[in-house]
Each structure stands twice: as structure tokens, then as C-alpha cells.
């Protein structure tokens, strides 16, 4: 009887750990996709952002292109000259219980050109 109880509890714990790992992996992928898409968008704007509509279109296109190539879904928002915010949601099913798990991460990238002061600079 005790053996059956131990096996049951062990099975529940293993299932919970494996399925929790899926949520962690989804969060990591969403984080990576959002960061890289934001980086691609800020690079597409170029070294001298004008803040115009053309910059916003270039940034959004570059970020969406990265997300498409990665197979991820998300939103891209240009919030200012040289500033891009990307939100990505990754949804997976847990391997043992088949429960859908969604993780959303947001990254903002700002292209800084000619910076002479700030953190890390002396």
C-alpha cells in the first residue's frame, strides 16, 4: 500500500516537473524572439534615426520579418525615434498532460548613436 502511494506521488511530481519545464522553455523562446526582433528593428532604423514614418515602417518590417522567420507571433510598436517595443507570445502544449501553456515577453530596443555618457562609460 505504501509502495503504491509512493509511486503515485512520484508520478505526479515527475509530471509536474516535466510540464513546468515546457512553460520555462516557452518563456525562454518568447524572450529570445522579442529581444532579437527588437534588435533587428533598431538596427534597420540605421545609425541616424529621423523619427519619421519611414523609420517606423523600416523598424516594424524588420521586426516582423525576424518573427516570421522564427515562426513566432507578436506585435511591433515604434514608440519613438530609434525606440522599438516587441511583444511575443509563445504557446506550447505540455508533453504529459497536453495542457496549453502561453508565455508572453516584451523587449524594447533603443538605438544609441554617439553616446558619450552613461552606464559603462567613463
Automatic annotation (TrEMBL):
<feature type="signal peptide">
    <location>
        <begin position="1"/>
        <end position="20"/>
    </location>
</feature>
<protein>
    <recommendedName>
        <fullName>Flp pilus-assembly TadE/G-like</fullName>
    </recommendedName>
</protein>
<keyword id="KW-0732">Signal</keyword>
Amino acid at each position: 500500500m505504501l509502495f503504491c502511494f509512493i509511486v503515485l506521488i512520484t508520478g505526479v511530481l515527475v509530471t509536474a516537473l516535466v510540464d513546468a519545464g515546457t512553460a520555462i522553455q516557452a518563456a525562454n523562446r518568447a524572450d529570445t524572439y522579442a529581444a532579437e526582433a527588437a534588435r533587428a528593428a533598431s538596427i534597420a532604423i540605421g545609425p541616424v534615426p529621423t523619427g519619421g514614418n519611414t523609420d517606423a515602417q523600416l523598424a516594424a518590417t524588420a521586426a516582423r520579418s525576424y518573427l516570421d522567420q522564427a515562426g513566432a507571433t507578436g506585435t511591433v510598436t515604434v514608440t519613438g525615434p530609434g525606440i522599438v517595443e516587441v511583444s511575443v507570445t509563445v504557446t506550447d502544449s505540455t508533453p504529459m498532460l497536453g495542457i496549453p501553456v502561453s508565455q508572453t515577453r516584451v523587449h524594447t530596443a533603443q538605438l544609441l548613436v554617439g553616446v558619450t555618457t552613461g552606464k559603462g562609460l567613463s
